[in-house]
Amino acid sequence: MNKKIIIVCLACAISLSSMAQYNLHVEGRNLKDSQGHTIVLHGVMDTPSPYFNDYRWTKWVPELTSNNIPACLTYFDKLFSAITDTSQGAYCDAFRLHMDPCWTNDPNKTATNGGGENDISRFSESRYEYYLQNLYVPLAKSANEHGLYVVVRPPGVCPTNIYVDGDYQQYLLYVWDQFSKNTYIQEHAGVIGIELANEPVNVLNADGSNTANTLHDFFQPIVDKIRANGFKGIIWVPGSSWQANYTGYATYPITDELKNIGYAVHDYVGWYGSDENNPNVDGAISQFKSQVPVVETNPIMITEVDWSPQVANFDENDASTYHVNEHGEKIPNNLGTWATGTTSNWGNAYKKLIEHYGNISMTLSGTGCYIDIDSYINNNKVIPAFSNKTGGDEACGVACFNWYKTYAEENMERINYVPTTEDLDIESITASSNNFTISVGSNAVVTLISHAKSGKEEEITGKCTATSSDENVAYYNGSRIIAKEQGACTVTFKYTDTNGKTLTTTVDIHVPEYFPLTNVGLNPSIYGNGFFDETTGKLQTGQYGFGGWKFASGLDLSAYDYLTVELQEANTSWGLSFRLFDSDNYWSNPYSKTFDGKTSITINLNHLDIEYEDANKVKQYRTVDPSHIYIAGFWTMGDSPIYIKSITLTKKATSGISQLDNNEKDEIASVKYYTVDGHEVNARYNKGMKIKKITYKNGNVKINKCL
């Protein structure tokens, strides 16, 4: 997020002093302390920056030096005391520390990429190493001494595009290599975690493409470097799209021998299908699972979130009434947070979301979003942020004062529970289901539960091992069952309890045809809200909607030549088409073939040639790769339902090929448009009939009339 506007709201999360004695680790989808108690953390984020700290510990200076360190440390020591002062109602138990680049950038260097927080051109290795030892680590130590669990993020924010094997990956490798070798950090890995990056936007392969494994390939080498250095603490892994997209990890999770991986997520008003005007709890829960599927397998920490009510009339033509967020959206002015909303609406919906999953920790986006900093600095009084302002009772400060106390009490109840002998005597283990039907290229989460003699039940997924009777059909990747090809197999899960007793349970896996026409297999709401009836084959999408299939690990159709799609009856709705995406991004450019009123179309999988315009409106041509199809299905206007009969894959020209134009087998060389009197125009010309001339690489030419 762009922090230039917000001074009030930059803070991190901290752990209760009574809990600091316990080292935290990941166990399945939960955080656990050293005694095995489930813990959920709550706190704030902050950054040691004179600007963002409102110049409370120093006036403006052209360069920060070692002389500024004592005042900065003293200031943060006061903040840590305030946010953990339970006698005054503050119950933070986590702190997110930003290693602010105002210390690590060389002021004598000239910025070459704009000079913002996402510009690493002035980064100085020598300054980083000095301030790591003399500022950042002492800040983490001070937070620990106040009972706070610390999550540390690297200096600055990610550039818009970051690449596997690119400069920014190398930058992060250096930053975390130095950090994870620090003696104090290694010795206190149970109370210090690493958040690998802040708000990646587009994470790309070295060639600029994006595939399901891209996030894994970018962050896995950094995890490996940290572990090779001996750091054993929790590593919090970000996603893309400003830390709101984690779909690639469902199939390609970060691997770690210690199994000590969590995922760091951001959430603001308007994200995950819930906003101030429509605080849709059920929709947000569903959308969060769709965008952050790792919530089912790993602990989550929302490391940025805040809200406060609108304070003035909003006029999109008056820049004084709004600020612009990272998506370019105009956000109405509020009491001093990044997002605009109220606790009664969006805030309470957000609370229900995190409580629904039960494994989501959080840190507000600033200390000033939790407490009134000046009240404490000047009067030693801890009061909720914005509580002395009109509308402050609807802001995140007051809400989180109440929430954090309740959550802290729940943590302590779990910590104080003493298991009985019968609690430890496990009689059986069961899976969330004994039968799964998973389409090729998709996956399913299995939850394992232990059943004790006392009747106590506990999730043990993270403690189980698994073997598949046929890994060519399906296998367990440590968090999910991945379907590879049609067939059936059995996955056996094994668990050994604290008494050394080994127990097992089995799960039967069925992998059906590639495009199952079932309510479970077909998703009618990939875009828009639709529905599908497996008994009739009826698919109704939302307006301009898309329904079909998503393949998290990519569907390989390269062994086939043709894909034939048949409808039960003709549909004349404009633009009805079947589309194939070789990217797991719905907004990428797919191959598309329209029905044009026909009941059947056949797609030549060897020539998925497309024409599109890039961001600069320049016409481009490429071929969709059938070896990794991530999304397939129907685009409709949403004005009438379609009735699907079948989807068939064939090799060689065995059926339906007579419907193909011979030119479809050849690659496109160029596409040009002309007016009816012969003048060349662009594709967007809309003043009447156009002539479309397609020239193929074999020399053939095809001419059509179009609007």
TrEMBL record:
This is Glycoside hydrolase family 5 domain-containing protein. InterPro entries: GH, Glyco_hydro_5, Glyco_hydro_5_CS. The keyword Signal applies. Residues 141-305 form the Glycoside hydrolase family domain. It comes from Segatella bryantii (Prevotella bryantii). Residues 1-20 form the signal peptide. Keywords: Glycosidase, Hydrolase, Signal. SUPFAM superfamilies: (Trans)glycosidases. The keyword Hydrolase applies. Gene3D superfamilies: 2.60.40.1080, Glycosidases. It comes from the Bacteria.
